[in-house]
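Need a sequence for this fold. Nothing fancy.
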């Protein structure tokens, strides 16, 4: 459970019952928020957008060009979700036509480091993963 990872094991009294602490509500909120964020960003488009924006600030069309195969609608939905979660910052420049730039926030850059770590892990274990999949599929 995510809460146990955030807080360690729950406190128990001598009789084995759980202690309630003032931090329990905060832990419950953190657990709920973690689940929502994991659900939001655990899709291929979000990871690819985060990776593209890791190179710097991009306009919408540049993000779309960097994320091969994404539709206009999916890019819009994912950028909005990433912005809502505070991972991407959207800047509208008052020009005609309006120019909109997207950039990763500090938490977004932190998430990109995690994504990069997952990619590195995949590369390190590629042979094992492919062999396991082959054995399983045959």
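Here you go.
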């Amino acid at each position: 459970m995510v809460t146990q990872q955030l807080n360690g094991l729950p406190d128990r009294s001598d009789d084995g019952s759980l202690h309630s602490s003032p931090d329990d509500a905060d832990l419950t909120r953190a657990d709920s928020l973690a689940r929502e964020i994991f659900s939001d960003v655990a899709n291929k488009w979000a990871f690819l957008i985060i990776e593209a924006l890791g190179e710097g600030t991009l306009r919408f069309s540049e993000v779309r060009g960097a994320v091969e195969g994404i539709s206009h609608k999916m890019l819009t939905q994912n950028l909005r979700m990433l912005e809502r979660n505070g991972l991407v910052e959207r800047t509208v420049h008052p020009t005609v036509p309006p120019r909109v730039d997207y950039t990763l926030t500090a938490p977004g850059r932190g998430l990109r480091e995690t994504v990069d770590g997952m990619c590195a892990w995949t590369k390190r274990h590629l042979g094992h993963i492919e062999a396991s999949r082959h054995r399983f599929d045959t």
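For context: The mean pLDDT is 87.
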